[in-house]
Design a protein that fits this description.
This protein is α+β, with helices and mostly antiparallel strands and 111 residues long. The chain has one domain. It has one helix and five strands; from the N terminus they run E-E-E-H-E-E. A five-stranded antiparallel β-sheet has the order 2-1-4-5-3, with helices on one face. Strand 1 (5-8) and strand 2 (15-18) form a beta hairpin.
Length: 111
């Protein structure tokens, strides 16, 4: 398992992504045996990121996203993509110790 595990979307549109070392090229990876699994490169971009603590739940994630959006609004930044949540800790880590990020891509890096 890699860290972080990236989650985006919800319901039947939810995706989970694993980070691989940059030295591994997509063409060099084994082909997935499940058609629902794809290998793709995530393009570079500029992201606003907020770290938050706790387990995955319907209370902490929306609160962290709201805090990040409020900060972006105050900084004059605009979101370009839906949020991506990054989870760094294994399931056996107590929830109050779990380190997470919420990320929103922004246009700040496009000049």
């Amino acid at each position: 398992m890699t860290t972080p595990v990236l989650m985006s979307g919800s319901g039947s549109n939810a995706t989970m992504a694993f980070v691989l070392p940059a030295k591994l090229l997509a063409g060099d990876l084994p082909k997935p045996t499940d058609g629902a699994v794809t290998v793709r490169e995530w393009p570079a971009g500029c992201f606003a990121v907020l770290r938050f603590w706790g387990g995955r739940n319907p209370k902490t994630e929306p609160a962290a996203l709201r805090q990040l959006k409020d900060w972006m609004t105050a900084a004059g930044l605009h979101e370009l993509t839906p949020p991506v949540f990054a989870y760094f800790d294994p399931p056996w880590t107590p929830s109050f110790l779990r380190r997470n990020d919420v990320m929103l891509q922004t246009e700040a890096g496009k000049r």
